[in-house]
Amino acid sequence: MLLKNHLIKIFWKFGIFQFLMEKNSHPRYVIMFHGISKSKVSKVPADIQPHLDIREFSEIIEWLNENFDFLNPDQLLNTNKPGILLTFDDGFNNNFTNVLPVIEKYEIPAIFFITTQHVAKPNEWLHFAKTKIHRLRKEHNSIHSKDNISDWFDGISIKNLKEMADSSIIEIGSHTISHPLLTEISADQIENELVLSRTFLEGIIKKPVKYFAYPSGNYNSLVISKVREAGYEAAFGIDKINHLGHPIYEIPRIGIYSSELSYLYAKLSGIYQKPIKRLK
């Protein structure tokens, strides 16, 4: 990791990423975020709290706004228009409180992929969040607070999900019920996670849920077939996809976890991931 960061700094210093971005003038990318906190807590390890806070996220959005156009899902899927589609995974309430005001300010379209356990029971944290909270309480009990835990890990409420979905620039997608590794559960369980989460969300937002994101980017041919059978029009992976021959159900995304300019140029210069070609 240190060597990689050192190389990024060298490439940045000599303008290589900047040159490649200018040369690659019409790229198409999907970028992925997760939770965005109100602010960082310096004494809590970075791997426990969200990677980005509002200040850092706002800096990223300002930089993207200066360097790219923004796409809505239809433009990504049905045209060859260059630009960036924003996506957010897991269904944290901080996506409503900390993210939505920023993207509404710039009128940026986005898909929010919701894990429905987070909506049904906002304080019933997802399994990976519970692990982090256990570490926080065990190792940093003197500096954590209920407000921090709520900001970092609570799921979005039904009320806030409805309000988010009412925005003309927001699309709601499914991220399953409980965020399992789909390749490690039975076919019936896969179907339940896909169908019941979609039905639940549609019952709340009163709109079709057309898009799906694989938890942890975990999928195989069986999972793709189940996603198609469940009626989803497209599905999104993470940074690395499996190339199983279904481009519309294997859309790669670039995870963004820092606001440093050298990092952003590295991630979106075309070196880290090739731009997405026309999908249909």
Provide the fold topology.
Elements: H1 2-13, H2 16-23, E1 28-33, E2 36-37, E3 52-53, H3 54-67, H4 73-78, E4 83-90, H5 94-106, E5 110-114, H6 117-120, H7 127-139, H8 146-153, H9 158-165, E6 170-174, H10 187-205, E7 211-213, H11 221-229, E8 234-236, E9 254-255, H12 261-267
Parallel strand pairs: 1-4, 1-9, 2-3, 4-5, 5-6, 7-8
Helix pairs in contact: 1-12, 3-5, 10-11
Describe this structure in words.
The strands form 3 sheets. The protein has a 5-stranded parallel sheet. A two-stranded parallel ribbon has the order 2-3. A two-stranded parallel ribbon has the order 7-8. The radius of gyration is 19 Å and the shape is globular. Helix 1 packs across helix 12, helix 3 runs parallel beside helix 5 and helix 10 packs parallel to helix 11. The longest helix has 19 residues. The protein has 280 residues and is α/β, with parallel strands linked by helices. Helix content is 43%, strand content 13%. The two termini are 37 Å apart. The model has no long low-confidence stretch (mean pLDDT 92). It has 12 helices and 9 strands.
